[in-house]
Write a structure and sequence with these properties.
By secondary structure, the chain is α/β, with parallel strands linked by helices. It has a single domain, classed as P-loop containing nucleotide triphosphate hydrolases (Rossmann fold). It has eight helices and five strands. It has a five-stranded parallel sheet, sandwiched between helices. Helix 1 packs across helix 8.
Length: 221
C-alpha cells in the first residue's frame, strides 16, 4: 500500500497524547495527507468496545484475559477494515495512538500466551506492520505519578482506566515487554526516553518521522 503507518506506544503517562498532537499538527501544517486515530475506539463501534474494555464495570466483574484479548482484536479488525487500510490504500499517513505492540505488552503482561497473540495477530493484521513505531519509554513509578497529577488537574475528562489502577508490578511487566519488542525490532521501533523535556522528545520523533516520510516520497522538511 502506498501510505505510511506510524504508531505511538508507551506505558500509561508516558506522553503519547501530547506527542501525537504535536506530530499531527506539524504534518497538517506541511499539508501531508493524514489520518489520526487510536485503539481501542477508532471507529463508532470501537468506541463502545473502548468503554467496555477501559472503564470499570458497575457490577465489579472484570474480563478474563482471553475475553479481553478477543475484544481488543475485534476492535482492531474493525479499525483496520474501516479506517486504517482504506487510508493507507489512499496514500495517506496514518498515526495511531496504540496498536499491536500495546496488545502484546499489556495482554501479554496479563498472562496471555505468545501463541494466542501470534494466532490472532496473523488472522487480523494479515502481516501488516507499522513502518515506524515510536515507543516512549519511562519507568512506571514516574509515569503513574504523571497519571495521578493529570487526573487531579483535569478531572473526569482524564478519568482513570482499569489499567491505570493496576498494580505497579503489572506496569513493570508491561514496560519490560515493550522493551523486549524494541530490542527485537530496532529498525521499526524508535525507543525514546519519555522523561526528557517535551520539546526534545518531539524533536527526536520528528527526526525519525521526517526521514521515513522523505523516503516514502512525501515532501517534508
Amino acid at each position: 500500500m502506498p501510505g505510511v503507518l506510524i504508531t505511538i506506544e508507551g506505558v500509561e503517562g508516558s506522553g503519547k497524547s501530547t506527542q501525537l498532537l504535536r506530530l499531527s499538527e506539524r504534518l497538517r501544517h506541511l499539508e501531508v495527507p493524514l489520518v489520526v486515530t487510536k485503539e481501542p475506539g477508532g471507529t463508532s463501534l470501537g468506541r463502545e468496545l473502548r468503554r467496555l474494555l477501559l472503564e470499570p464495570h458497575p457490577s465489579g466483574e472484570t474480563w478474563c484475559a482471553d475475553a479481553e484479548l478477543l475484544l481488543f482484536y475485534a476492535d482492531r479488525a474493525q479499525h483496520l477494515q474501516t479506517v486504517i487500510r482504506p487510508a493507507l490504500e489512499a496514500g495517506k499517513v496514518v498515526l495511531v495512538d496504540r496498536f499491536e505492540d500495546s496488545t502484546r505488552a499489556y495482554q501479554g503482561a496479563s498472562g496471555v500466551s505468545e501463541a494466542a497473540l501470534d494466532r490472532l495477530s496473523e488472522l487480523v493484521l494479515r502481516r501488516l506492520k507499522p513502518h515506524l513505531t515510536v515507543l516512549l519509554d519511562m519507568d512506571p513509578e514516574a509515569s503513574l505519578q504523571r497519571v495521578e497529577v493529570r487526573n487531579l488537574a483535569y478531572g473526569a475528562e482524564f478519568a482513570e482506566t482499569r489499567f491505570d489502577q493496576a498494580a505497579l508490578d503489572f506496569h513493570r511487566r508491561v514496560r519490560n515487554r515493550f522493551l523486549a519488542i524494541a530490542q527485537a525490532e530496532p529498525n521499526r521501533v524508535a525507543l525514546i526516553p519519555a522523561r526528557d523535556p517535551v520539546d526534545q522528545v518531539a524533536s527526536v520523533i520528528w527526526t525519525r518521522v521526517s526521514a521515513l516520510l522523505r523516503g516514502a516520497g512525501f515532501g517534508v522538511d
